[in-house]
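2024-03-11 09:14:02 DEBUG pipeline.ingest accepted 1 chain
2024-03-11 09:14:02 DEBUG pipeline.ingest length=345
2024-03-11 09:14:03 DEBUG pipeline.predict start
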Amino acid sequence: MRWPALLFALPLLAACAAPTPPVDADPDTASTLGRLTRWHAGFDAVVAPDARIERLADGFTWSEGPAWIADGGYLLFTDVPENRMHRWSEADGVSVFLEPSGYDGPDTGELREAGANGLLAEPGGRLLLADSGNRLVARLDLATRRKTPLAERFDGKRLNSPNDIAQRSDGSVFFTDPPYGLEGMNDSPAKELDFNGVYRIAPDGRLHLLDATVPFPNGIALSPDERTLYVASSDPEAPLWYAYALDADGTVSGRRVFADASDLMSDNAPGLPDGMTVAADGTVFATGPGGVLVFAPDGTRLGRIETGGAISNCTFGDDGRTLYMTSDDILARLRVQTIGPGFAR
């Protein structure tokens, strides 16, 4: 999700020019995007020094929430301000998969962004989505496009605007709930909760609050052993990633700072901690200032993948060794030497 520093520029831009339809990138220029920054020798084992970042499609307002659909071999991702979900494949390029992706009612003036945000593929042709516009977490049947709400309220109050999702093998669903989808964010009169939370939906459907103290909880992901939950905080005053220790039932038993991006903040490094994914070997790919920051499992900063703009989120796809990235108005990808969770080795 976009961070507070960019929130006030978007309405002006939108007023100046109508959005243009997304298009597939020119194959002649697709492999010339961005650069790789190496901070530690271990980066070479994750990303080959000669790896190229490819631009796959562009023309979006703010691309987000990529999810690889293995049964079909395509990627789904959202354009949150435009309230659309897009489909991309090597064979067919980019197309609209679901519109609206989120809220489909009359304009009430309460929403800053009506679309869905983070996505997570499930087996059996289903997709979990953080439906920011409808202020809930839902399951989407890919064949029928029908949504089934999973979480809408906590203690009788509406959620803020769910942002990103992770799922454990026991069926537990973890998600973040910042105020980014609401007009005025924390000051929105439509905001019913007085905090921004990190939550778990238990396998029995009950909703549990894990943390109410993260100022702007955003991206979320699990370690390969599912004993650590990573949460990004898109707070410009404290751009951090937290690591939560999880008990067997998914209850939080401790929290520590996993990484701090304060020293990377600059006008030349757009972005704050946002979406993330974790490889099967525990390598963390976390979007942040300047691009996707790559961390060893112990938090050592290895390097950065840069597209030249802010990157909102990333996920593994294809054979598990392709990193797909939603970067502002573009969709990009990079071949890596690690493999994503759940892919055959």
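2024-03-11 09:14:41 DEBUG pipeline.report DSSP finds one helix and 28 strands in the chain.
2024-03-11 09:14:41 DEBUG pipeline.predict end
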